[in-house]
Amino acid sequence: MRFSGLRVFKEGLTGNKGWKAHWRDAEPRPAYDVIIIGGGGHGLATAYYLAQNHGITNVAVLEKGYLGGGNIGRNTTIVRANYMMPGNSEFFSHSLKLWEGLEQELNYNVMHSGRGQIVLCHSDGQRDAMVRRGNAMRNQGDDAELLSREGVRKHLPYLDYENARFPIYGGLLQRRAGTARHDAVAWGYARGASDRGVDLIQNCEVTGIDIENNMVRGVQTTRGAIRAKKVAIIVAGRSSQVAAMAGIRLPIESHILQAFVTEGLKPCINHVVSFGMGHFYISQSDKGGLVFGGNLDMYASYAARGNLPMAEHVMEAAMALMPAIGKARVLRSWGGIMDMSPDGAPIIDKTDTAGLYLNCGWCYGGFKAVPGSGYSTAHLLATDTHHTSAARYRLDRFRTGRGLMDEEGTGSQHNLH
Questions:
Q1: Nearest-CA neighbor of 184 among 416, 367, 404, 54?
Q2: Last residue of a domain, one of 273, 305, 340
Q3: Stretch (H or E) spanning 275
Q4: Same domain, yes or no, for 203 and 327?
Q5: How many independent structural domains does the chain possess?
Q6: Confidence (pTM)
């Protein structure tokens, strides 16, 4: 089933009775070439690119709940490539290019909107840092524009330019950055993977990983044992728990990140806006709600909810940046479980157990990385070599100290990234 304007028009005239299910709700088979644990954005993208790019279709995606029910369905939907460190810069540049052709490739509307992101600076030091970051982005081949105070005012007239505590000195604009519809991304990849023969198995929790002679043999699940030649753990905030089933202790802490959405409003925010002094970011969804978030709750937890002090902190940052937001009603909030690495950069690598692979440690960058992550992980699973864009995301950097990517310069404390 392919989507087109003509098909949508025809279905509208015939009662929308011709649409079919987007993917097969498969039953588990006894064995596969590859098992992917985790039916979120990264896992589904990996399955899609395994089939599309490498012709590997004897693949099962195992999800303990429903597809797209984790972090891919609970985030602030920001897409960008404004990283500076070698390793991060080329990866997110590659991922953004994949975003820009994703709807055509999947034949699915993921509502990707390159509306632009403006990161504000509030001091001379921050402005100098923006110059450095912008030059690094341009050297990578991505777009970056340094805006003056008046340049920011032209794009964002609704900000508080008279705030003496947080004066706006300027900003860094990436016009190709923007947003996408989070759950539509999961559905699009699920549909594409299923169409190419991948089994998507919901309500199938992995309870154990079978290893013999230091080689993976398969997994134990709530729906029985399933054998496999290769197993990939792609479960975001649950990475440490699932890896422990294979006897692996990961350098990962799980923390909660809250997000909020207001009632629907008329279009008023055309960009993604990041507040340089308060770790606050905001955009407006296609339904009119203002979607915004802030910092982690700062304590390790697996609870997919947040605390009130951090909610208050986020609201304070919102009011400091744009007081007009105080008139909007907050409809709901939610928390995602972030898999935080010591240097703030992810892990895409093989383990010391033959046939067992990891994809984790995405910190704040999980959603924007979905296409690049799936593309790179599929390449690793298919060839046992790293894709050039993800060549530095190795697990052993935490043992050797070589190749660490501390993008924010905050040291090795997980919750500061």
A1: 367
A2: 340
A3: strand 272-275
A4: no
A5: 2
A6: 0.96
